Amino acid sequence: xTNQPDDQxxxxxxxxxxxxxxxxxxxxxxxxTLAHVGTIRDGLPIVIPMFxxxxxxxxxLHGAPAAGVLRRAAEQIExxxxxxxxxxxxxxxxxxxxxxxYRSVVVIGVAESVEDPAAKxxxxxxxxxxxxxxxxxxxxPTTEKEIRGTSVLRLSLSRSSAKVRTGPPxxxxxxxxxxxxxxxxxxxxxxxxxxPDERLKDGIELPISIEHLFDS
Amino acid sequence: xTNQPDDQxxxxxxxxxxxxxxxxxxxxxxxxTLAHVGTIRDGLPIVIPMFxxxxxxxxxLHGAPAAGVLRRAAEQIExxxxxxxxxxxxxxxxxxxxxxxYRSVVVIGVAESVEDPAAKxxxxxxxxxxxxxxxxxxxxPTTEKEIRGTSVLRLSLSRSSAKVRTGPPxxxxxxxxxxxxxxxxxxxxxxxxxxPDERLKDGIELPISIEHLFDS
Lengths: 216, 216
Fold this sequence. Notes:
- Two copies of one chain form a homodimer.
- Chain A is 27% helix and 36% strand.
- With 216 residues, chain A is of the alpha+beta class.
- Chain A has a domain at 12-87 and 97-165: Roll (Pnp Oxidase, Chain A).
- In chain A, strands 1, 2, 3, 4, 5, 6, 7, 8 and 9 form a nine-stranded antiparallel β-sheet that branches.
- The model of chain A is unreliable at 1-13 (pLDDT under 50).
- At the A-B interface, strand 1, strand 2, strand 4, strand 5 and helix 3 of A face strand 1, strand 2, strand 4, strand 5 and helix 3 of B.
- Strand 10 (195-196) of chain A pairs antiparallel with strand 9 of chain B, so a sheet runs across the interface.
């Protein structure tokens, strides 16, 4: 007997699983809005919401150069970025089995500070397009001063995992007879009527990029 | 000259600010859904989404006893729980000034493991009522076995802070002439049509607690 078949299986299977996971991770990141980024400050954990975008197989994190989390993260320490989307309230027949349907991604790793001005400018474009797809094309180019005033961290998605809960409540068998409504209430993120800036110039219509937000 | 007036001012002002902040913190926690909880695992930060409820001036965190974050947090180490609500996409005239309107709360401290069975049962009630206000009254009481199968952490709100961004984009003065739409797109969390469990008994109507979710 030899371990070879198992090893081969492992070699064949792990890349598949990794690809699948990276696809799942990227699908969740495409839909999420904020990352909650954990770093260690004076030996203690601190979690801050940060804006992010995805660039290929990397997560880009965005902030002001003065932001503590960015300064600490740039010191080549490991950080953790978690993105969660709530999909539903799971209403079971007992308090114990109440839950949420959700999709979450955890990315860990040492973040790299993006220093190249062109890469920082392109990151700002990605952030604008993450907020509203197509937005960047409507804006003037980023200036050198703005690039200097921006900090961007790059965190590889190579150490990331996705976790998903879907479906109905799972109750104890004896509780299915209980006379109480059970099921799932879907949770959605929706957009309200756009509020034009008070200083918006006359005659400027809502661009198609923003109109597309309301398509789905 | 003496520092006394300043000191008095400080004594008078800080409690006001603290009260205000605690009110602001609790208002945000009442509306939020998930906490992103940071702990340290093998010296590195890890951030996990967790369900929470508020009990007086404490945050209650809920999970399975096996959950790593709960086990680590119960070891009398400091944790950080962050709750963020996104209120709007802030669309400026430059990529640089794009932002989000949001409300966030950061709570830090050493969490206490809730061990008293009655306190754990009442925490489960609070969690059910946090998911759907009034839900707990519709459910059977929690069993002793369920109480044993539940871990609850209590984290004081005494070391908490709120951070809020509201209002329109703030652009560079020279950009207000630029021909691009700018303003805020409100972001809301809404509920979809409730999906009854496939095993729901015939004749059970949607309870008023769930109908109330659609009031606003």
